[in-house]
Every structure is written in C-alpha cells, then in structure tokens.
Amino acid sequence: MKKKFSNISIRAKLVFILSLTAMIGLFITSGVLFYTGIKTVREEEVAKITQLADVSSFNLEASLIFQDEEDAYKILSSLTVNPSIISALLYTKNNKLFVKYFHERVSADKQINLINDSSKLLLNYKKINQSDNSLFFGGKFDVFAPIKIKDTDEIAGILHVIADTQEFRKKVKDLAYSLLLVFGVTLLIIFILAYFFQRIFSNPIYALLAIMKKVPANRNYSLSKEMQRHDEYGALFEGFNTMMQELKAIEKELIIEKNKANKANQTKSNFLANMSHEIRTPMNAIIGLSELGLKIELNSKSHDYLFKINHSATDLLGIINDILDFSKIEAGMLEIENKNFHLSSEIIDNVINLNNTRALEKNINLSCSINPNVPQFLIGDALRLRQILINLISNAIKFTEQGEVIITIKTAKNTDKTVELIFAIQDSGMGISSEHVQKLFNPFTQADTSTTRQFGGTGLGLAICKQLTELMGGEISVDSDIGIGSIFTFNVCLKKQDNQSPIIVKSSENKVTTNRKTDNLKNSKILLAEDNKINQLVVIEFLKLVGADVDIANNGKEAVAKALNPNANYDAILMDIQMPEMDGIEATGIIRKQLKDIPIIAMTAYAMDEEKQKFLDAGMSNHVPKPIDSKILYQTLEFLIKR
Q1: What are the backbone dihedrals phi and psi of residue 134, each rounded to the nearest 5 degrees, phi first?
Q2: Which are the contacts of 494, defined by CB distance < 8 A and separation ≥ 6?
Q3: Longest dimension (CA), the chain
C-alpha cells in the first residue's frame, strides 16, 4: 500500500494533504456556532425581560390612569424576580418620567446616567421603530413596553426596563469555553493525523535536504542521491543530480577565474604602489626645491615663477592622490581604520591650518564652530575624515570670491559608546544649480564644463568624499542656491574613547589658527638615510632652516652603522624605504634590536595604507610621505623628539 501510494502523482498526495484543511472548516464552523449561540442566548435574555415588561405594563395601566405612584412603584419593584433587571422607568404618554425604580446595587451617579440615557433612547425608540421594543447596547439590555388603555389603541405611557448583561456574559463565556474545548480536542486530533501523514511527503524532501546541507559544508559538488521513483519526486532528484554535475563544472571554471582575478588585483595593487612611488619621487624634488627657492631672496619675476611652479606641483599632487584614492576604492582595497584621535587638535586645527593661507590670500574668513556636546576623544579613521574636510573646505574656498567659509560640527546621536557627528561646510560662493546638484557626487563630474575650465580639477574629489563617508557609515548631501552659496553636509559614525577630558569650545567668531613653532628642533641631531641626492638636498635644507644638524647615510647598511655608533646620539632617524644594499625596513629591524626608543620616521613615496602599516609593524615610529611637506616634517619630528 505504501509503495503504491509513493508512486502516484504528487497532485494526488496534495489532494490528500489538503483534506486536512478540515481544521479551517472547524474554525469556520466553530465561529458560526459561537455567533449563533450568542444570538440565541441574547434572544432568550431579551425574551425573559420582555415577558416581564409586558406583564408589568398590563398591570401599570390603572396606576397611570389614576396617577397612583405608590402602586406603580410596587409593580416595578416586582421586576426584581429577574436579578438582571437593575432599573425600571415609567413614562407618561407625554414622555414625562412618572415613577422610577433602581436596584440597590445601582449607585446614585449611575442612576442619573441611566435616566439621561433612557430619555434619549425613548425619543429614538418612538422616532425610529415603535414596533421594535427590544434594543441591545453593549453593557445593558433596554426593553420598551407600551402601556395601552384596555379595549383601545390609545397609549397611556411607556415602560423602559433596563437589565445588565452579567448573566448574558456568563452564558456566553460558558459557551466559549465549551467550543474552545471541542476546538482544542479536534485540533489536537488534526495535528496528530497531520504529523503521521506528513512523513509520506516530507521524508524524500529531508533526504534531499540532507545532501544539500553537505554541499556548502564540505564544498563537495559531486554528491548525488539516487531514488527509484516515477513521480515528481523522482524527477526532482534526477534534476538535482544533473544540477550538481553542472555546478561541479562551474566550480572548476570559477576557481580558474578567481585565481585570475586575484592575480589581476595583486597586479593592480602593485601597479598603484609603484605608480605612487615613481610619481612622488620626482614630485618631491619639484615641490621641495621650489619651496626652498621661495625662501631665498629673488627678484619678483623669479619669485613669481617659483611660486607658480610650487603651486602647480601641489595641485598636480592633489590630482594624483585623487586618482590613486579613487582607484583603490574602486578596487576595494581601501579599508577604514579604527584608531584613537583628538578631534580638535588632530583634525580641525590641521585642516584649518592647511587651508587658512589660501583663504587669507582671497580675503575670506575661515572659521569653525563646535557644539559643546561634541566629544573630542574619538576612535575612527582620522586620516580619511581629515581628507573629506580638506576636500570640502578647499572646494568652498576655491568657489568663493568674497565672504566666508564656516565649518560647524554637532552631534546627531550620542550614546555611551558611539557618536554620530554632523559636519557642515557653508560658503558664500557662486552656488550650484539644482540640475547639477543631482550629479555632483558622480566620478569625473563637476557642476559644468565652464567651471572645469575656470577652476580646474578632476571631478573626483566629491566622489571620493561620498565613498569615504559611506565607508564610515554616513552620507553626504548639498544644499545650494546660485549666487548665495552652498552648504555641504556629511555625517560619520565614530566610537568614543573611554575617557573624555574637558574641551574648549570654539565659537564661530574665533578662527582656529595654530602656527606651530619649531624651536624644539634647534640643535637637534638628525640622521637622514636617503640614497637620492636631490631628496637629500631638499631634506637637509628644510632642516637647516629650523637649526637642525643633519648627518647623511646613503643606504641602509650605512644607516645601521651610523645609528649604532655609541658616539652618535641621534635625536631621530629619517629612513627612506627603497635603498640599495639594504632597504629601510631591514635597517629599522636591526637598529630596533639595540635602540628601542629612538624615533625612526619612514620617509618614502610609498603612501598606501597597507604600506604605512607595514612600516609601523617593522618598528618605525611614524610616516612622512613624499613629496615632503615641511610643516608635516617639522611637526612629526618635534612631536617625536619631545616625547
């Protein structure tokens, strides 16, 4: 029997299973019975009250005619034979209350309410349907009985009998319990039957499911299940086996393609690293030497040429950085760090100082306002947060000819462990039309082509800001009006350090400008490990300007020898990474075995995040990228030497 049943079509099985939907029929039947039962109980209760009301109305005829209130009250009091009746109100034919009776359990306040409700219902009763003498309003029964004069159709008055629903609710509750009991027992029987019958249909499915679970767990696409059946289950297993064979073939192809993709990504990563290094090395010479040239006495024309060379080289470096950053993001190689930082000193002061000179050149007021509840000691990617702010602030200054650029920082969500910061950069510049705002954050896009020609730029800056913001759990938007200015707003989610020291709030009227002094570098002794002669010249001249004494090592071996010389006593070591004979990482490892505390600063054109981490893991104290920014070099040396 079981074998025959297993070979019939799945539709026949489904017909059999669908018969178990009797449970739904049971539910519907129970509902109908419950409704019918409630209706029957209500009709019985109303009939009892109506019968008493009719009898009383017959006896009240004489009381109304002779205006005998005492006799009427006795008749009304006899209604207590039904404990549900709580009140009886006798009205004259003019709807004037003649006699009233209330059960002792009815309070004075409730008596007043019952009288008021009775007056309204009496009017409604006479207006709507005089033949309907029973109404049901939720918490009580209202029965009206007209009192007619014998042998005439003239109405002498109306009796309004009011009963509570306690007895009615009790009967309904008993009915509900009975139906629930029957429903529960029947439902249990249905579940028991369903449990046994479902095995017929579920066992093959579970057999197939067991194989499917093994496939991802064991990464084995050669698994199969043979089943000699002639119904839809047999077709299902046959299809599954065929699919597994195809997946096995696809897996082989995917492994081959994955290896190719990994190799391509590694090649791209190596290309980006090499491209960054090869471009930054000559850029270091151009920017460094032009900056040094600007510090010596020149005629105005030569000074102007050098200034423009330095400015253009800096712009070119920014374009290169944007292209490399965008390439890393597109390749999925950029990861957000989580490190401790101080918002004001490490982010705000830095971005203000970097942009303040250009703002002063254009006579633009650059200011920052920090809300008092903004925490200062945070955990996140300070470098990328700084990058977003620098890009937005420099854009605001670029497109503003007069007025001001205001930075505001406030909190959106502030919990014990995390905080959502909202940054707004507002300018009084040229503004952006609504049609161009929609595509502003797309790669290689600017407001329009005329803007690109006038102000320059790759159109990558805002696209990078958008992607970096999203990587930090936020979003960026802009609100702009032509001729009025723009407000770029972005939010980031950061963690809070355990200890938060008091902060000094800077109002919007106070510029955050910090000019660092480099007196601590005077007479300091620095070892420079660098094989490129031009780079040596640039760094030596930079350090001479602050009174530092520089010693040169042309390769890693020479750097190790000089650093470990007992008579050397260097305050810090500037270590290039790529050098002949011995590279900077190997040299740092040897030096660190004997000199644990001396600051060793990686000074290299390798500037990708994973490379920076590699330098720190090798024992270096910090990183100064090429092209060298003299301010960053001074600040890094001053901080590490002082520490």
Answers
A1: -140, 125
A2: 378, 379, 380, 418, 419, 420, 421, 472
A3: 140
Structure tokens at 436: 């161009």
Task: Give yes or no for a contact between 87 and 100, defined as CB atoms under 8 angstroms apart.
Answer: yes
Helix H or strand E encompassing 551: strand 549-553
Q: Any residues with CB less than 8 A from the CB of 194 and at least 6 apart, and which?
A: 20
For the stretch 567-599, pLDDT in tens is 888 999 999 988 888 999 999 999 999 998 899
Q: What is the pLDDT of residues 13-31, one digit of tens each?
A: 644 566 667 778 888 888 8
DSSP 455-517: H---S-HHHHHHHHHHHTT--EEEEEETTTEEEEEEEEEEEE-S------PPPTTS-------
State the sign of the Cα–Cα–Cα–Cα dihedral 123, 124, 125, 128. positive
Q: Please tell me the distance from the alpha carbon of residue 489 to that of residue 525, in angstroms, as a whole number.
A: 45
pLDDT at 638 over 80: yes
- Choose among 222, 214, 273: nearest CA to 251: 222
Cα(314)–Cα(304) distance, integer angstroms: 15
* Pairwise CA distance, residues 555 & 310, whole Å: 29
Per the listing, tokens 């060379």 go with: 309
Nearest to 392 by CA among 471, 302, 308, 487: 487
The count of other CB atoms within 10 Å of the CB of residue 193 is: 14
Tokens of 387: 């990058």
Residues 6+ apart with CB under 8 A from 37: 172, 175, 179
Rounded-to-integer distance, Cα 87 and Cα 162, Å: 5
pLDDT digits (tens, 9 = 90+) for 384-403: 898 899 889 988 998 898 89
Helices (H), 219-348: 232-293, 300-330
Q: List, as own/partner pairs, every contact residues 61-64 make where C-beta atoms lie below 8 angstroms and the sequence separation is at least 24, other chains included.
A: 61/147, 61/148, 61/149, 61/150, 61/156, 63/90, 63/99, 64/90, 64/92, 64/98, 64/147, 64/156, 64/157
The burial class, CB within 10 Å (0-12 / 13-18 / 19+), for 377 is middle
Q: What's the rounded mean pLDDT across residues 198-226?
A: 67
Which residues are paired to 144 by β-bridges?
A: 160
Cα separation values, 575 from 284, 317, 615, Å: 15, 22, 10
Residue type, 627: P
> How is residue 184 annotated by DSSP?
H
**Tokens 């290039």 sit on residue:** 576
8 A C-beta contact, residue 366 and residue 395: no
User: 167 near 83, Cβ under 8 Å?
Assistant: yes
pLDDT in tens, 455-476: 545 567 788 888 889 888 899 9
CB-based burial of residue 632 (10 Å sphere; 0-12 exposed, 13-18 middle, 19+ buried)?
A: middle
Length of the chain: 643
- Residue 226 φ/ψ, nearest 5 degrees: -90, 135
Question: Is the pTM above the cut of 0.70?
Answer: no
Name the amino acid, one letter, at 248. Answer: K
Neighbours of 213 (CB within 10 A): 10
Write the CB contacts of 554 (distance below 8 Å, at least 6 apart in sequence). Answer: 530, 531, 579
For 362-425, the DSSP string reads TT-EEEEEE-TT--SEEEE-HHHHHHHHHHHHHHHHHT-SSSEEEEEEEEEEE-SSEEEEEEEE
Distance CA 142, CA 264 (A): 87
Phi, psi of 165 (to 5 degrees): -110, 20
The H-or-E segment that residue 526 falls in is strand 525-529
The residues pairing with 148 across neighbouring beta strands, listed in sequence order, are 155
